[in-house]
Specification:
Shape: globular
Structural class: alpha+beta
Distance between the termini: 42 Å
Radius of gyration: 22 Å
Length: 513
């Protein structure tokens, strides 16, 4: 970290946040209504769209240097939404509310264009592959990029360049270190130790009964990040390589282009009805279930992997954060600021490469932390043998304190070190973790997960209903909704080719697409 002291670039990281949340009824069931017209067209709205289900909102901020301004925009989006939900609420947790029947979950609809049909068929495919209930799991995505000035500084310190190839290498190093240590984030911020029993219908599991309608594990942290959530046995057998951008792209290509036996049995289509976009392991790049992804903004119609191959990595997207049910926005400023510390630590730490053995070790540690993270005796796998989670966590957080010192120096003592100390307290005492707090509330109140989640949903709704947007800000959201509808209609009017031709072009990986 020598040479970074006082560098103003450390105050210029770029952030963006995406929050997924289910719309629910006042009785706590999944809303079966259409995407509210007040929110515009989800195909084209830049701030308010849908994820898998028509009932699953996705709230998207712009890019901000300041964590505070990013969360302020997220608060504005939430406020606008809550003021237009009519009788509905937003479910506060990552694991879904009670769902009586998988078939009632409405897949998101986007309009009549080829682009809309593509998105809908992709979701049909997800439903066939993983089940619709699993797709209603929601989370927080934290986008992070390094400013040009910091790349320049790092190149001078290392005696290298700061061109795009060096940035690709830097982001991949960050990702390798993140993958090695992301179990710590699952421990610190995991907030899904229990699920509604309806979520487990017809699924194998090893959970225990907390009450007749709630299942849990005593030391669980984030069931969302385990086999019941965003883990795929098929994907776990395919190794994605993070050692260089060419290796990353080469390792992704077979997953996107080669027929997978299980998905071939589903079939791509029955007559005119599509079951999925392709029968490959991944229909599109976004289907990769990973705690962190390399990202590059793609042009319209351009495949994400081709965009990255052509122009390199632009930012990383962290996907292992549960929605914090205690927070109206699903994320606090303190958690977001700690993410800066953790990601900068990952960028600055050395890492010469990730072997297949290390990749398997990463997954083993993740699953151990998911199921038993709050067990004081839990040991994780390292290259040198088993090691207690608490001891390893303390070591990483001590290193994070050094990073926090750098950030405090350029942010007028902004409290980064105290944020790390808050995380140290969670390691010393697991009862301070969100998972433990949620678990203890259910035990103390003898309150099922579904009932507690609904109570929190009402509390957050009341909090955000007391927050009013300035007239100008309200008008901006109204304008975005109208503009999104016009943009969707323009896309529909501009379609000239058949959907079959549209899909073939997209899947071809043509260099001129």
């Amino acid at each position: 970290m020598r040479g970074l002291q006082g560098n103003p670039a450390l105050a210029q990281f770029n952030h963006g946040i995406e929050r997924e949340a289910l719309r629910i009824t006042p009785s706590g069931t999944l809303a079966l209504t259409d995407h509210p017209t007040a929110f515009g067209a989800p195909l084209t709205h830049p701030k308010i769209t849908t994820d898998f289900s028509e009932a699953q909102l996705e709230l998207i901020t712009g890019v901000h240097e300041s964590v505070e301004s990013c969360l302020e925009e997220l608060a504005d989006i939430h406020t606008y939404i809550h003021h237009h939900l009519e009788e509905e609420l937003l479910w506060p947790a990552s694991m879904p509310c009670g769902i009586s029947d998988e078939d009632v979950i409405p897949i998101a609809r986007y309009g009549d264009s080829n682009a809309a049909r593509f998105k809908e068929i992709y979701r049909e495919g997800l439903g066939h592959r993983y089940g619709r209930v699993m797709q209603t799991i929601s989370g927080i995505h934290f986008n992070f990029s390094v400013p040009e000035a910091l790349w320049d500084t790092l190149s001078k310190i290392d005696g290298t360049s700061s061109d795009q190839s060096a940035r690709n290498a830097g982001y991949l190093r960050l990702m390798r270190n993140f993958r090695k240590n992301s179990w710590l984030l699952i421990y610190l911020f995991g907030a899904s130790p229990a699920v509604c029993a309806s979520f487990l219908r017809n699924r194998e599991h090893n959970l225990q009964r907390l009450d007749p309608s709630t299942c849990y594990l005593p030391f669980a942290t984030s069931l969302r990040m385990g086999p019941l959530g965003y883990q795929s046995q098929e994907q776990s057998l395919h190794r994605v390589v993070y050692n260089s951008l060419p290796e990353y792209i080469d390792s992704m290509m077979p997953a996107l282009t080669q027929t997978h036996p299980r998905y071939a049995r589903i079939g791509i289509r029955n007559g005119d009805v599509y079951n999925q976009l392709t029968d490959a392991l991944l229909q599109v790049e976004a289907e990769l279930y990973a705690g962190i992804r390399a990202k590059r903004k793609a042009e319209p119609g351009e495949r994400a992997l081709l965009a990255m191959q052509r122009r390199g990595i632009e930012y990383v997207e962290v996907r292992c954060l549960d929605a914090d049910p205690f927070e109206p926005l699903g994320l606090s400023v303190s958690t977001a600021k700690f993410m800066d510390i953790f990601l900068l630590h990952a960028l600055l730490s050395s890492n010469d490469g990730e072997t297949a053995v290390q990749a398997a070790r990463n997954l083993d540690n993740q699953l151990s932390t998911v199921h038993r993270g709050r067990d004081p005796g839990l040991e994780l796998a390292t290259a040198d043998g088993r090691r207690k989670l608490v001891n390893w966590a303390h070591e990483i957080l001590e290193e994070c304190k050094l990073v926090a010192t750098l950030l405090d120096d350029v942010n007028d003592g902004d409290g980064s070190q105290s944020l790390v100390e808050q995380q140290v307290e969670k390691v010393r005492d697991p009862s301070h973790t969100p998972a433990a707090k949620l678990h203890q509330l259910m035990v103390d109140r003898k309150q099922p997960f579904a009932s507690l989640g609904l109570e929190m949903a009402f509390e957050h709704h009341e909090t955000l209903m007391r927050r009013n947007l300035p007239t100008e800000r309200q008008s901006q959201f109204d304008d975005l909704a109208r503009q999104s509808v016009a943009a969707r209609e323009a896309i529909e009017a501009a379609d000239e080719k058949s959907f079959e031709a549209y899909l073939a072009d997209y899947l071809s990986f043509r260099e001129d697409s």
